[in-house]
Fold this sequence. Notes:
One of its GO terms (molecular function) is peptidase activity. Keywords: Hydrolase, Membrane, Protease, Transmembrane, Transmembrane helix. It holds the Pfam family Zn_peptidase_2. InterPro entries: Zn_peptidase_2. By secondary structure, the chain is mainly alpha-helical. The chain has 7 helices and 3 strands; from the N terminus they run ααβββααααα. The protein has helices at 2-32, 43-53, 83-87, 91-108, 112-141, 144-181, 188-228; strands at 60-63, 71-73, 78-81. The protein has a 3-stranded mixed β-sheet with strand order 1-3-2. The two termini are 25 Å apart.
Amino acid sequence: MAIMVGFLIYFLLIALIPIIAQMRVKSTFNKYSKVRSTSGMTGMEVARRILDDNGLYDVKVVEGRGFLSDHYNPVTKTVALSPDNYHGHSVAGAAVAAHEVGHAIQDAESYAFLRFRHRLVPLANIGSNMSWIFLMIGIFTQATGMFMLGIILMALGVVFQLVTLPVEFNASSRAMNQVVSLGLIRNEEERHAKKVLNAAAMTYVAAAAVAIIELLRLILIYTGMNNDD
Length: 229
């Protein structure tokens, strides 16, 4: 009974951590999406201004789809902003647009962690898709070698999550420097923009924390399997 309760608490924990992080970013964004920036610029205009100021004239700014679907595509050199941020004049929209441009600046400067993350993408995808196959085979057949292979594959995904953290925090830092130095947000708006970016960053922290916790759990299972032998 105690073991079942422990497992229940564990699964609730790894489920709630990302949910809470997502709720926080949505509530923070919704709050400051109602605060109009004094510059009166749309997210598209903010992104274009920062890109041009950094000489990134070849990077396009386009309207994406969905809520908070904002991202930078290094292959097509495109900053895609969700409709609300693309057309909106809010502090939240300006912060998010600047953050995505931060990734474009990282790309242009060959930021080391961004390059490393790009190289990890195919390995992380393979690890995420294949790890559970080997883990399940290892569990049902008690083949510790197969289980360890599953752990190694899952660890690739964990490394990807960890490398993502400095990439995202650095993009946010660049974003704040740009919007403040260019006068795109002013005074109290700076604190509001930081809250939006910090809330968004916590989603990546939550994802990394869950990945690490799950990896540690699997390592403990592997240790138990070896002890049984």
